[in-house]
Amino acid sequence: MNFMTYNTLLYYCYADIANAEQFAADHLIFCKSLSLVGRIIVAEEGLNGTVSGTADACKIYMQAIHADGRFAKTDFKIDEVTAPSFIKMHCRYKAEIVYSGLRDTSIINPNLQTGKYLEPAEFSEMLNHDDVVVLDVRSNYEHNLGKFKNAVTLDIENFRDFPDQIEALAKYKDKKVMTYCTGGIKCEKASALLLHHGFTNVYQLHGGIIKYGKEVGGKDFEGKCYVFDNRITVDVNSVNPSVVSVCYSCTKTTSKMINCANPECNEHITQCDECGVELHGCCSVQCTTHPRKRPYDGTGYYVKVPQPLGKI
To answer: What pLDDT, on the 0 to 100 scale, is given for residue 304?
Structure first.
């Protein structure tokens, strides 16, 4: 019996795209022709995507991306999955491929200056050095679920809040600052901004947490990694794994993450199965009474209502 095999691809590429809005429309048609599902952001500064489909379709997609000279350097993180990790295919034009507010390329341009890449083995070797600070540039809900041992985390709700943290990070200017995020895309701008503000020894984990887990077994990454598809979380550490997150509702140890079933709240929280059942997938009793509360099926993942293609 032949079993269909599926892949999920995580990637980004900073590259100049002329007429990016039209590119997004054309790229959506191409993805649909391969029966891919996923979410891709297109901007004048590049591509940021997670797509999923059959292994054959994903292979064709990667070949097409690499065949375009603008995107030849794209590094794909490939996960084997039992089923596609999305339900629909979206390809949207936006002002940035990861929203930061750092749009002035005369100040921040990842194609010209970023922190020095560290491959996963190099990052692992440097983790415990005394002159190193490991900096997580992700949002609260992400690092609450999992982070590197002894990492400095930031109290931010979104990456666009990162620039406001520079002053608080100034005390680490005499250290080697090793930045990391899920797949590497946020570190490109975060490390560039640190360099712009006078940090001199700035590094970034090439390929992010996902690549680190694949290449060195995720050693010293505590907890799980949040991902932006219907898997919600993935395992990273096969060397010395642990669970560091607790239930938002009862504080019992759990690694399960959901979105609140109240769509107007939609809070990212960790919640154990027992509290999930009791609160119908909501973060609070108040949210359980919301008239638009979504049915909770135990996953805590909800498909967004499709939006028209265009500027957002």
So the answer is: 61
